[in-house]
Structures are given as structure tokens and as C-alpha cells.
């Protein structure tokens, strides 16, 4: 009897332990599954570590209010002022499309970084005066919380233009306009020029104009990075890709003269992603053409200039890439720290680069334009076209011929009048050109609003 009771008790205990073990194992398994499920849910939530099978983070948004083609200083300036003028954060969705984020061929970083007020058009002078104030107070405009302040390495050494007897009257008239607009520019006779800059040969010089304030040069790469950093903090979106097509609708109209024209309304931009055959459509209301030397090609994508020659529809955007050389040389006996940027009668210019008797300069070709598709630098051009006028104007530069030369390539923009094209394009109202000006001075046009309105004097205020 006792044996039977012990056997029953032992059996119940073993059975209970077995059941308990099974129950416990089942509970542990369920807890483990719940834990895994929780982890998966958390990873899918915003901020989680979960990644889809196809990463789309590099693609631009499907919709934007404004698409800016070109991410150089001009395009970034447009983006900056658009965001500055919005009534509330996020009110305007701005997308900047740049095909080369290294900016290896961008005119912005390949330019000499000059700023001047010595222009003949009042609008250019006003734009440059504002830009000088902008650069002087750069950290009030482009400061970003927790980031170090910007240092543009500005050299306020001025511009010095030389004129012959033939060009003296034009220079006087230009300086009169410049002074009326508030620029500080003085005229100098050959005697005054020799006294101020004894290293200059004044032969052939009848008159000179010299900028006393707000002129000089700085590091354009620092400005580019500062603008890019600021607009990103303001919510501007960036995309590395190339605009390859505009999708538009057409409306046929007739001009006062009876000419039939087709007005196109752009409502979509197609962007080809970098190093890929992938395309992303972006719906938009406005397109800003800030593609620099390639603005003419972008305009053609929108149909500009595709009509019959001599008609409004056949008028092309007068912008084309032109290759310019900027040479760097060393001359121990060259002009000192007081040397301005000198623009000679011959078209040759030079300025000091740093503090170690280094100089850079160049000139535009007087004859046939070099092929912009060939990015090689022509060193013979320096020896034959640049160095002789330099050595004549500054005798100390005679010695630079025996020193090593280095050079870089500058892609400039050219238009029929060497001035900016701003406002709506007649046959494509949604396309805003903002691309054209002669080098080497381009920073005069950081001015607000001038990118999206016609060039009239009353349109150059921030409220516009």
C-alpha cells in the first residue's frame, strides 16, 4: 500500500514537473517571439534601423514649388533668398539639382573671386554694392547654430583699370555713373599712378580708375560652402543628378505683329540620377536656370530657340561655354601687398595671390575661341599672349618667365551684351534664366529678388 502510494506520488510529481517544464518552455518561446516582434516594429518606426530592399534616400522629392538647375553660388543665392522671404518655415519647397557636387568644373570655384563696382550700368553697380555689404556681414546672413563662423579671406585691395587716350572719355563717364550710385572710385593721372604704384610702367596710359572701397577678392569656395550649409539648415533640398527633360503643356497664341507663338508651361522636371540610368520626375511650378556655362543647353531642353530662325520662337538663350585660362606664377621681385587687381589696356589682368610673391592672371583670347570640350591648359598661350603685356606693364615680371607655371581652367558665360538675363523667358513663362555674366567678377549678384523679376531699378529691393 505504501509502495503504491509512493509510486503514485512520484508519478504525479514527475508528471507535474514535466507539465510545468513544458508550460515554462512554451511561455519562454512566446516571450521570445513577442520580443522579436517588438524589435521589428521599432525598427520600422521613424528613426529605426530598418532599411527597405530598395534605398530611395538619394532620389529627389516627387514635388517641389521651385526647382533650381545648378548648385553654384547663383543657384544657392536664389535658394537662400527664397527661403528668407517665405512667411513660415517650409512654406516654399525648394529643390537644387547639381550634377557635380565636387564642383570640379564650376565657374564659381574656378574664378578669381573678384568683386568690384566699376561697371557702366547702374543696376550692376547697385548689385555689387549690396554684395559688398553682404560679404562684409557674411556671418549675419549665413550663420548656422553650432557651426564655426565663416572666413572668406577677403583682400580689400581694389581694382585698377587702365585706359588709353581712346578710352579715357568712356572711363570718365563710367566713373561718374559709379559715383552717382554711391561707389568710391577715383581717377588717376599717369603721374599719380606712378606715385601710388611705382612698379607700373605708365607708357600708353592716359587715365586710370581705382576702387577705394568694397573692391578686392576672396575665396569663392568658402562662400559656396557657406551658402550650401546655410540653405540646407533652412530646409532646401539637394539632389545630385542631371536635368535631362522638361514635361510641359503648350498653348498657341498670336503676337501683336501677327506672329504665331507657342507658350509652354513646364509642370515636370525629369532628373537623371548620378552614375545611374535611373530617372526621377519632379512636379514643380517654377524652374530657375542657374546652370552657368551650360544654361543654353538647359534652355534648349525647354524648347527655347527651337523655332524658325528670326522668330520669337527661334530666339536662343545667348549663353555658351567659353574656356578661359587662369595662370599662377611666382615672382620674388613682383609688386607688394598694396597691389590691386590690375586690368591692363591689352586685356591682360593679374592680382596678388597670398603673401608669398605669388600672382595669378590671364586674358581673354582676341582671336579664335578655344574648344571648351578640351579641358587641357595651353601653356603656350601664356608665353605668347599673357606674359609679354605683363612684362611690359610691370617690368619686375620679366623674371617670372624662368619660373615654373601652373594654371587652371575657367569656364565663363557669354551673352550678347555681357549682362545678366533675369525674369521670365517669353515663350516659357515658368523658366527663369539666371545664368549669364562675364568673368572674372561674378559676386556682384547676390542681391535679393533680382533672380525672379525683370531687371528694373525698382525691382532691386528685398521686398521684391
TrEMBL record:
Residues 65-397 form the FAD dependent oxidoreductase domain. Keywords: Oxidoreductase. Pfam families: DAO (PF01266). GO terms for molecular function: oxidoreductase activity. PANTHER family: FAD-DEPENDENT OXIDOREDUCTASE DOMAIN-CONTAINING PROTEIN 1, SARCOSINE DEHYDROGENASE-RELATED. Required for the assembly of the mitochondrial membrane respiratory chain NADH dehydrogenase (Complex I). Involved in mid-late stages of complex I assembly. This is FAD-dependent oxidoreductase domain-containing protein 1. It comes from Sus scrofa (Pig). The gene is FOXRED1.
Amino acid at each position: 500500500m505504501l509502495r503504491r502510494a509512493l509510486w503514485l506520488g512520484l508519478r504525479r510529481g514527475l508528471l507535474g514537473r514535466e507539465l510545468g517544464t513544458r508550460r515554462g518552455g512554451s511561455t519562454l518561446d512566446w516571450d521570445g517571439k513577442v520580443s522579436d516582434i517588438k524589435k521589428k516594429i521599432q525598427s520600422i518606426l521613424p528613426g529605426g534601423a530598418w532599411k527597405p530592399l530598395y534605398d530611395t534616400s538619394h532620389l529627389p522629392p516627387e514635388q517641389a514649388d521651385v526647382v533650381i538647375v545648378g548648385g553654384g553660388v547663383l543657384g544657392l543665392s536664389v535658394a537662400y533668398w527664397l527661403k528668407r522671404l517665405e512667411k513660415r518655415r517650409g512654406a516654399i519647397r525648394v529643390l537644387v539639382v547639381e550634377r557635380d557636387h565636387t564642383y570640379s568644373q564650376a565657374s564659381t570655384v574656378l574664378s578669381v573671386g573678384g568683386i568690384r563696382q566699376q561697371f557702366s550700368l547702374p543696376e550692376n553697380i547697385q548689385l555689387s554694392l549690396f554684395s559688398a555689404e553682404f560679404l562684409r556681414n557674411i556671418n549675419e546672413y549665413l550663420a548656422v547654430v553650432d557651426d564655426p563662423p565663416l572666413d572668406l579671406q577677403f583682400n580689400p585691395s581694389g581694382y585698377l583699370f587702365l585706359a588709353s587716350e581712346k578710352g579715357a572719355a568712356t572711363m570718365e563717364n563710367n566713373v561718374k555713373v559709379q559715383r552717382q550710385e554711391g561707389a568710391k572710385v577715383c581717377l588717376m593721372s599717369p603721374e599719380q599712378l606712378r606715385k601710388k604704384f611705382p612698379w607700373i610702367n605708365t607708357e600708353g596710359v592716359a587715365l586710370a580708375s581705382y576702387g577705394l572701397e568694397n573692391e578686392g577678392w576672396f575665396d569663392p569656395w568658402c562662400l559656396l560652402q557657406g551658402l550650401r550649409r546655410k540653405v540646407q539648415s533652412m530646409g532646401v533640398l539637394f539632389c545630385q543628378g542631371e536635368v535631362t527633360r522638361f514635361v510641359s503643356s503648350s498653348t498657341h497664341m498670336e503676337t501683336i505683329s501677327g506672329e504665331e507663338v507657342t507658350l509652354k508651361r513646364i509642370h515636370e522636371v525629369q532628373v537623371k540620377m548620378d552614375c545611374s540610368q535611373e530617372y526621377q520626375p519632379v512636379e514643380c511650378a517654377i524652374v530657375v536656370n542657374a546652370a552657368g556655362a551650360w544654361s543654353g543647353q538647359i534652355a534648349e531642353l525647354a524648347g527655347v530657340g527651337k523655332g524658325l530662325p528670326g522668330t520669337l520662337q527661334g530666339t536662343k538663350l545667348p549663353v555658351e561655354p567659353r574656356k578661359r585660362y587662369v595662370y599662377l606664377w611666382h615672382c620674388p621681385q613682383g609688386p607688394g601687398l598694396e597691389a590691386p587687381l590690375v586690368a591692363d589696356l591689352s586685356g591682360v589682368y593679374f592680382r596678388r595671390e597670398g603673401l608669398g610673391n605669388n600672382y595669378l592672371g590671364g586674358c581673354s583670347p582676341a582671336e579664335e575661341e578655344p574648344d571648351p570640350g578640351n579641358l587641357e591648359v595651353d601653356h603656350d598661350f601664356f608665353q605668347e599672349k599673357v606674359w609679354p603685356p605683363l612684362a611690359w606693364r610691370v617690368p619686375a615680371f620679366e623674371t617670372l618667365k624662368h619660373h615654373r607655371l601652373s594654371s587652371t581652367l575657367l569656364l565663363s558665360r557669354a551673352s550678347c551684351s555681357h549682362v545678366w538675363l533675369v525674369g521670365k523667358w517669353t515663350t516659357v513663362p515658368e523658366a527663369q534664366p539666371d545664368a549669364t555674366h562675364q568673368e572674372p567678377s561674378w559676386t556682384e549678384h547676390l542681391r535679393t529678388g533680382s533672380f525672379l523679376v525683370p531687371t528694373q531699378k525698382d525691382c532691386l529691393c528685398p521686398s521684391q
